[in-house]
Amino acid sequence: MSALPRLIARDTALAWKSGGLWLPVAFLLLVAALFPFAVGPNAAVLARTGGGMLWIAALLASLLPVDRLVAPDRDGGVLDQLVLRGIGDESIALTKLIAHWIGFGPPLMVAVLPAAALLKLDGATILTLEVGLLLGTPALAALGLLVSALTSGLRSSGALAGLLALPLAVPLLIFGAGSLGDQSGSALKLLAACSLLLVGITPFAAGAAMRAGRE
Amino acid sequence: MSIAALSLSNVACLRGGRMLLTGVTVALGPGDSAVLRGPNGTGKSSLIRAVAGLLPVFSGTISHEGTMALSDESLALDTQATLARALAFWAKIDGVDERAVHDALAALDMTRLTDVPVHMLSTGQRKRAVLARVVISGAPIWLLDEPTNGLDTASVEMLGELMATHLAAGGIILAASHQALPLPGAQDIDIAAYRPIETEA
Q1: What is the pLDDT of residues B27-42, one digit of tens each?
Q2: Which domain holds residue A161?
Q3: Would you call B74 and A14 a contact, using CB atoms and an 8 Å cutoff?
Q4: How many domains does chain A have?
């Protein structure tokens, strides 16, 4: 196994050990359980608004581990040691992007099933939601890593990361939640396009941020 | 170990808009070592980081043959893992056999700490763990920034033996320290000689 898969395995294992895998799941289920208390137990209202609410919950869940994606490795000198071994910042960012996605994307997609049951979503909506999350969660992971790399040298970076990431996530939310009421499938295609763009630029942008952070 | 070489030619370091060092020229071949000396804040660590490729040099060139290993103030070990597992991660990244971990721990008298989590280690033990990481890497060029910080007398002697073995095997050591290092035969580089002359603006 070469260095990059090892780094992905290490970051995933660290996320697992620090409870990172259960945190987004618990968060999503909690939000889904609280939502009917806020808007009332009207099944029609829940079914109409539930999907969009789950998208917001997924977006917020992706930001939960943002303060420990890059900062601990930067402060602990792990990034220095990797760069010393000739591993580029972009490659490190890519491994962290993949590990972050593994850490919250698939668990979230599983958690959506019981959450959808709580909100009385029908089968077709759940399927669209899952496809949308499959397309959208890599972009959410990319966004999380990007702001994590940008804010890694700052104090109270978690709150700032949220403020930076949420406006950038608006297109994902529009197309992701929009796909639920869209029969033509074009919203999903636009979501995939947004996702591709974010996943494409993040290794370079986050890598540049990590490089700049060393000086 | 292949033929190692490290050379700095007319290197200048700029940090935060301030010229720290200019005209640093050092050439090291197999078995050579050099110690950067000088008080705190004079640019020793910056120079080491520049050699490691972690800081851009303002001018001049740094070239090296062979891989490098760096020991500085940061631990770069997973603190929740046991010492052996944390070091084994780097051994795997470096493509080194895991037996090297146990050999290095034995050489640094840390065998009984093998299964202790890294976050339980004391300051001196952490420093020795960092040095173990350098030894394990098998890199011919060692960059040691203040390697004796936090070490007791016995550990400094162990470090001296390790460095002697490394040099005898054709390795290169570039160290920075404000204390005396157990490194006989090292080129002594007084960092003050490379400080730019402050000119009135």
Answers
A1: 999 999 999 988 888 8
A2: 3-213
A3: no
A4: 1
